[in-house]
Structures are given as C-alpha cells and as structure tokens.
Amino acid sequence: MTPESEPGTEYLPDEAALAHVSALLAGLPRPAIPAGVAARIAEAIASEAAAPPARQRRRPYLALAAAALVILAGGIGLTNLHRTAPTSTAASAADLASVANALEPDLHRLQTSIPAPVADNTTSLGYGAAGSAPSTPAPSPVNSAPNAAQATAGMTPAELADCIAAVGRSGQTASLVESVKLGSDPAIALAFISQDGTSADVLIVAPTCRPGSPQLLGRTTVLLPTG
Amino acid sequence: MTEQIGDAQLLADHVAGDPSALAELVRRHQDRLWSVALRTLGDSEEAADALQDAWISVFRNASSFRGESAVTTWLHRIVVNACLDRARRRSVRPTVPLPDEPDLQPMDPSDRQDERLVQLEIERALAALPMDQRAAVVLVDVEGWSVEDAAAMLGVPVGTVKSRCHRARAKLATQLAHLRNPSASDDVRTPGMVEAAPDREEVP
C-alpha cells in the first residue's frame, strides 16, 4: 500500500514507473544561477548592508518596541494590556525584562532615557530629558522606512499579513516587525504608526499569531520622538 | 591553505557586522537555492524575485537562527517560503509558465537534441503539478534531500511530505509514461495505472 492511499482512489503506478520518475527527476541538471540574477541579489544585499541610514531608520521603531516592553515590565499600568488565554508565552515581568536584554545593544541606551508617560494610555518616547513630552510632530518615520515591513521576524509575508489581520489591522503595514523574546519564548513586536506620524500602537504578539488566535501579549500607544 | 569557515559561523559573523560573511554564504548556496526556486516556481523572473526576497530576509533575520537545524536547511526553508508566498499571490494566473530556455544547461554541441526535449518535458510536467506537491518532489527527488529535511524546510510533518511526493510521482508517471515507453501513443497507459481521483487533503 502506498502512503495514505485508499484502494481504487489513487494512481497506482507500478514500482518501475515510480522509479522511472524518480530517476528522471534526479537526472535533471542543476541550472547555475544566471549572472544577472546573482548580480541583482548581490546589489540588493549591498544596499541593505550599506545603510547606516537603514540602521538609523530602524532605531525609532526598535525604540518603540523597547518602550512598550519597558512599560510592561515596569507595570506602570498605563498601557492597554490585553492578554489572551494563558499560554506559555504569557509575559511575566521577569520575562519582559529579559526581552529588553535581548534587544540590540543600542536599545539599552535608549531604554534608559525613556521618559515618564504624558497621558493616559500614551507614553512619550523621547531621547532627551525625562518627562518632556514632544511638542512637535515626529519627522515622518513612516516614510523613511519603506521596507521595514519586509522584515518579517521569521514569519513568511503571508503569515505576517495573517497576523496583522488577526490583531485587527487588516490591510495596514507594520512600520516595525522585530523578533523579541519572552523568557525563552520568541515573540514579535509590531508597530503601527498613526497617519499624522505623531504616535504609534505597539503590539507584542506570539509567533503563533494567526487569524482567530492573535496571541496578543501586550499593547501600548507611544508618542514618537521629536527631532 | 585556509580552513573553510562553517555556515553557522558565517551567519554569526554577519550578525556581528562582518560585511563579507553573507556574501560568502550567498556564494556557497546560491546555485542550489536558485535551482530550488526555479523548479518550484517554474518561472525565472518569479524565481529571481523570490530568491532576492529570501536573501534579504536572511540578511535581516540572521540573528533569529538558533542552530537547531543546519544553516542550509534554514536557508532552504526561507527560500521555499518565499516561493510559496509568491505562488499564492499569482495563483489566479490561468496559465502554467514554461521553463525559459536560458534556464537549461548551457548549450553543448555534444548534447543530443532528444535529451534536451526530454528535459523540457520533465520541467513542463513538474510545472503542472500543484504547488505543494511540486515543492515536495523538487526537494526530495530533484535536489536529493531526505524526507525529514524536506519536512523541516516545508514546515510540515514527514508524512505530509511522503504523501505529496507520492502524489506528485504518480502524476508525473502518467504525464511522462511515454518517456518510459516512447513508442506508446498518448492514450496508452503504463501497465498498473488506474484512473485518477481528485486530490484530497493529505493526512500528516
């Protein structure tokens, strides 16, 4: 019996026919990558690599995630924290603290200067003096990172789109998609920047975020930094 | 003679900021990954786009590699996912693209014309398979990966890969039966074949 077949419902080629097919497939030559394609890929990678600007562009978004995590870890209580049914990824303060530690080194510096919240459910995210609320709109970070949403934190683009839909953001583009960790469990930070560029919703979801099961672990609104 | 740096070390070097590490990883794997992308998608432009997407994803997410599988398995999974995603997006296309001539091996005067035609026929039959079956049989039969490795690359259970491969081979056996017995007419089935039933969902 062949795998998972039912009598009378499957192709039943004889073993020789199957062996013939396997031999034909195994005998296909491996095409070398065309020079033009290889060059194109090299160029795309070089563009990514040669982007101090790219890394700089990511800083505000990474900082958004860090801010959300610090807020959650600190239990400030100003965030709209929603948890789904208890799972192994449910965030404890210790877990969230370790998440912050897992973020990029430059984030740690940013975290130390995250000011106090300035409004209910809203946190100012500035790099300057603590407690100072931004008085001018952020310098349109949405437009400065057109490819940020292509970083899918290990999700396929389709999985990411499903997850975004699952958290009620169907059709929107996340300006940040970043892998983080909750304890030993992976999580993903998503940020959606408001149309006026002055604030962002930051969502922390489990990688299993899917339609019908968003696995939303944390959520907050932050004001974007000025200057 | 310099000792070759392992793939995992190259990834780590890339994460640490070595600008040449990823280029070396690309150089090592690009032909094999191109083959997978091309045969999975059956279209060189789509394959090029998918491969570029995949390498950019590798660039950005290298730090998420945890060493739980070989780097090459991880790379294949990213490429296959990029291909499947592109295939899903183009699924409304009513036509099956034929492999482009330049994707075949370079012309060699010693090549026999009939071998090239056979190769084209196989490529055409592969391109006509459902995407999930094609991806499985490309990894296992064309590229020679184990069923277990292919399952890891596709993110599905081993039993699902076996099922998909079996279905793919069965369809190809019918499509390519004349290659086994070139004198038979198109409506002559290989002995042992019975009528096909519609696909059903495989059981992991």
List the helices and strands and how they pair.
The complex is a heterodimer of chains A (227) and B (204).
Chain A: H1 15-26, H2 35-49, H3 52-74, H4 93-102, H5 105-112, E1 122-124, H6 141-144, H7 157-166, E2 176-182, E3 185-193, E4 199-205, E5 216-223
Helix pairs in contact in A: 3-4, 3-5
Chain B: H1 7-16, H2 21-41, H3 44-61, H4 71-89, H5 113-127, H6 131-142, H7 147-154, H8 158-175, H9 177-180
Q: What would your notes on this structure say?
A:
The complex is a heterodimer of chains A (227) and B (204). Chain A is an alpha+beta fold and 227 residues long. In chain A, 36% of the residues lie in helices and 15% in strands. Chain A contains 7 helices and 5 strands; from the N terminus they run αααααβααββββ. A 5-stranded mixed β-sheet of chain A has the order 1-5-4-3-2, covered by helices on one side. In chain A, helix 3 (52-74) packs antiparallel against helix 4 and helix 3 packs across helix 5 (105-112). Chain B is mainly alpha-helical and 204 residues long. Helices cover 61% and strands 0% of the residues of chain B. Classes of the chains: A alpha+beta (227), B mainly alpha (204).
Strand content of chain A: 5-15%
Specify the number of helices of chain A. 7
Helix and strand element order of chain A: HHHHHEHHEEEE
Helical stretch tally of chain B: 9
Mean pLDDT value of chain B: 80
Question: Within the largest sheet of chain A, what's the order of strands?
Answer: 1-5-4-3-2
Which runs of chain A of at least 5 residues are low in confidence (pLDDT < 50)? 1-5, 73-151
Biggest interface and which pair forms it? A-B, 46 and 68 residues
Specify the helix fraction band of chain B.
55-70%
- The N- to C-terminal Cα distance of chain B equals 47 Å
SSE succession of chain B: HHHHHHHHH
Number of beta strands of chain A: 5
Helix content of chain A: 25-40%
